[in-house]
Amino acid sequence: MDWLNLIVFPILRTVVLFLVLLTGFAYLTWFERKLLARFHVRYGPNRAGKFGLLQPVADAVKAMFKEEIVPSHVDKPIYLVAPALALIPALIIWAVIPVAKDTPAIADVGIGFLWILAVAGLESYGLILAGWSSNNNYSLLGALRSSAQMISYELPLGLFLVSILILAGSFSLVELVDNPRAWWEWLWLWVAFPFFFICILAETNRSPFDLPETENELVAGYQTEYGGIKFSLFYMAEYINMITTSAIMATLFFGGWRGPFAEEIVWLGPVYLFIKVVVLLFLFVWVRASISRPRYDQLMRFGWKFLLPVGIVYMAITAVLAVLLK
Amino acid sequence: MAIDYLPLLILIILAMGFAAIAMGLPAVLGPKLPNKQKYEPYESGIIPFADARRRFPVQYYLVAMLFVVFDIEVIFLYPWAVILNRLGLFALVEMAIFLLILLVGYVYCWKRGALDWGGQVRPGDDVVESQVVESQVEEE
User: Fold this and answer.
1) FRET pair for A309, CA 20 to 30 Å: which of A65, A287, B33, B38?
2) What is the tens place of the pLDDT at every residue in A160-180?
3) What's residue A279's pLDDT?
4) What is the residue-averaged pLDDT of chain B?
5) B24 part of a folded domain
C-alpha cells in the first residue's frame, strides 16, 4: 500500500513525536524546578500529586483558561504569529535525529546536518519578531540582544559542526551514528564538547546566557507583552529546544542510540538515547544553578574573541588530522 | 528522491496546525473581561512616555554584518568538509588559502575595535579622563 507508507505512517510518527516532545517539555519544567529547588535546599513543587508530579498538568490547564489579551499598541499580525514561529522550528528539528538503528525520528533524508542548521537558523525569527512587534522598550532590547547573541554564537557552533562533518564525511545523522569511529576521533571530539555546549547554552538563551530575558533589567525581555498561552508557547519552544539540542549533542558526541546490545534489541536504542538526553539536561540545570550571568559586553567578547578563534583552530587541526590519518 | 521529503512536509504542516490550535484555545476557553489598563504597554508600572520605535546602538548592525561575512565562510566549508577525505591534501591547501584571506579581515576587525562593546576605549576615541579610569577599573 503506497499511500499507507507515504501519508499514514508519517502522520502517525509525527503525532507520536509531538506527544513525546510535549510530555518531555511538561516534565522537563518539573525536573528543572525540582532540581533547582534541591540546589537551593528547598523542596520545589510538592502540592499537586505525589512529588508534585501533577504540577505540569495544572500549569497547562491554567495556561489554556487564561484570558486572551492583545495589547492595543502592538503590531497585531506579527505579534500573533511570533509565538508560533518560535515553536514550529523547535518541533520540526527532530525529524532527522536517529532514535534507533537505521531509524530516524521522521525521515532519513541524507541532509540531516543541513536540516538542523536551516531550522535552527529560523528559530531566532520568532524572538526578534516578538520583541519588535510588541512595541515595548524592554521587548525591543531583549530581541536585539537575543538576535546578536544567537548569531554571534552560531559562528563557532558552525565551525565545530564543520569539524564533526570532516570526521563523519556525510550529511546524514543516521550514517554518522552507524559508521564506526577510530579511538582518536572520539577523544578529539570530546575536546570540542565543552565549547560546543557553551555555544548551545547561548543559542538556546539558557542561563548563564539568558541576557535577552534578564528579569532584573528587562522584566522578561522579548516576552514582556505576552501572557497566557502565547507566553506558554515561547516557554515550550525554549524547553523543547533544550531537549532537542541535548539529543543532537548525544548523537554527535556520545553515539546517540548506541549502547550495549542496542544493535540486536531495537527498543533499547530509544532508551539509551533517553538516558543520555536526561544526563545532558541535568547539565543544563546544573549550570543554571551554579554560574552567574555575565555582562553583555563580556558575553560578546567571549563569543567573538575566544570561541571563534578556538573554533577556527579546532577545525584546522581536525582537517589536518583527517588528511593525515584517514 | 523528492518523495523522501514528503514526511518532512507533513511534519511541518502538523506543527503549524498544532501551533494554530494552541493559539486559538484561550479565545474559546478563556474569560473576557476587557479593561483599559490591560491593553497598555507594560513598563513596570510606569506610564510609558516614549515609543519603542527608536534608534538603537550601531553595534548591533555591525555584528549582523560581520555575521554575514563569517557565516558565508562557514557555508563554503560544509561541502568542502564532506569530501575532504576524498580530495586530500589539495583541498586542504586550497581551504587554508581561503581561510587566510578571511583571517586578515578578522584581525582587521579586531584591531579596529569592531568586536568591542561599550565600556571600553577604542583607538581614536575622544576620551574623557574619568572614562579611562572606569575602564581600567573594569579590567582589573
Assistant:
1) A287
2) 988 888 888 778 777 777 777
3) 92
4) 75
5) yes
Number of structural domains found in chain B:
2
ipTM of the prediction greater than 0.90, yes or no: no
Gap between the Cα atoms of B116 and A220, Å rounded = 26
Could you write out the three-class secondary structure of chain B?
Answer: CHHHHHHHHHHHHHHHHHHHHHHHHHHHHCCCCCCHHHHCCCCCCCCCCCCCCCCCCCHHHHHHHHHHHHHHHHHHHHHHHHHHHHHCHHHHHHHHHHHHHHHHHHHHHHHHCCCCCCCCCCCCCCCCHHHHHHHHHHHC
CB environment A220-252: b (16+ within 10 A), e (fewer) = bbbbbbbbbbbbbbbbbbbbbbbbbbbbbbbbb
Q: Contact B15/A114, CB-based, under 8 Å?
A: no
Please choose, from the candidates B118, B122, B51, the residue with its C-alpha nearest in 3D space to the C-alpha of residue A145: B118
The more confidently predicted of residues A190 and A183 is A190
Do B6 and A326 count as a contact with CB atoms less than 8 A apart?
no
At B95, which CATH number? Answer: 1.20.58.1610
pLDDT at A215: 67
3-state secondary structure of A100: strand
In a domain, B75, yes or no: yes
Instruction: Name the residue range of residue B17's domain.
Output: 2-39
Confidence check: pLDDT of B18 > 80: yes
3-state SS, residue A76: helix
What's residue B66's pLDDT? 85
B28 plus B62 within the same structural domain:
no
Spell out which residues of chain A touch residue B11, defining contact as CB-CB under 8 Å. 10, 14, 17, 91-92, 95, 106
Domain check: are B111 and B76 in the same one? yes
* Domain contains B49: no
Contact B44 A6 (CB under 8 A): no
Q: How far is B133 from chain A (nearest CA, A)?
A: 18
Written as one letter, the residue type at A237 is: A
- pTM (predicted TM-score): 0.83
Same domain for B24 and B66, yes or no, is no
Q: Are residues B26 and B77 in the same domain?
A: no
Show the cell assigned to A148.
546578536
The shortest CB-CB distance from B67 to any of A108, A134, A155 is to A155
Q: What span, in angstroms and rounded, lies between the C-alpha atoms of A275 and A271? A: 6
Q: Do B120 and A67 touch (CB under 8 A)?
A: no
Contact list in A for residue B122 (CB cut-off 8 A) is none
